[in-house]
Amino acid sequence: MSKARALSGIQPTSGSFHLGNYLGAVRQWVELQNSHDTYYCVVDLHALTAGVDPAKLRDATLASAAQLIALGIDPEKSTLFIQSHVPAHNQLGWVMECITGFGEASRMTQFKDKSAKSGSDRTVVGLFTYPMLQAADILLYQPQYVPVGEDQRQHIELTRDLAQRFNATYQEIFTIPEGYILKAGAKIFDLQDPTAKMSKSASSTAGLIELLDTAQANTKKIKSATTDDGREVRFDEDKKPGISNLLTIHSAFSGRTIAELESEFDGKGYGDFKSAVAEVVTSHLDPIRERTQELLQDKGELTRLLKIGAEKAALVADETVRKAYDALGLIPRG
Ligand code: TRP
Description:
By secondary structure, the chain is mainly alpha-helical.
């Protein structure tokens, strides 16, 4: 039996991934490589919806690909590619726009949140059609699974609806994908505001652990993480969100259970505990940062790997576009 296929994408929105990206998503992508036929895509076209600085986008796209490899996405096992290298994404994206209702698209909560923040004149149309491009990203590869965070559930639901609608109206072309919602245990919160998800859109970067930041900078952030007035290192998300978040982070890297950590730090103060968290985080991130830098210094090799990925991806994607266009009555060029 051939392996089930899984596909996911990550936006190149900043030079460095943060701990939430890694523990909440990419780490599971790495594991899936052993059991699934995996496709991973740096979605640079989606990043255009946030408004771009070209030099930053260029750097962030390459840095994202390099970090994925450094974190364990193996270009031999996975098809790793940059979205804009495969024009089929735009080709099928338009088709998805043409089968999506305006009201349906208007109900996407991510669109509503983002457009409410900037006002309708400053909200680009690309933000509105973002979920249809995402549906195309997915359906092109006929994956059974889409490993994403909880926040993407609605986009996956829309993708399923569009696939079913196309299949029912034209021809049975698309596999109906299932969201593979990543473990909630890996949810990482902001170090300064441990009730908010760790995110690069937070008002300050003080609560954000960036993978490519120096060990000193990250140690400092961990040591100044918000805690509570008590003294006990105990997991209690309601009463002790800061300490609970640090326990989750320690456990994710050390592989020790929360219970083991609670008993190890029983009677010790927050200071000792934070030092231990900083140590376990930076010792894991040091080699990842170094490997990323090596890859970014050898752009020729990185470009070569991404080209192979794009060629493999295009083979599958172009075939899907061909079938979908044909089913729609678009005449082949011949
Ligand atoms: N919207 C996703 C996010 O913000 C990124 C994304 C784009 C994606 N295309 C995708 C995720 C296809 C999974 C599959 O995280």
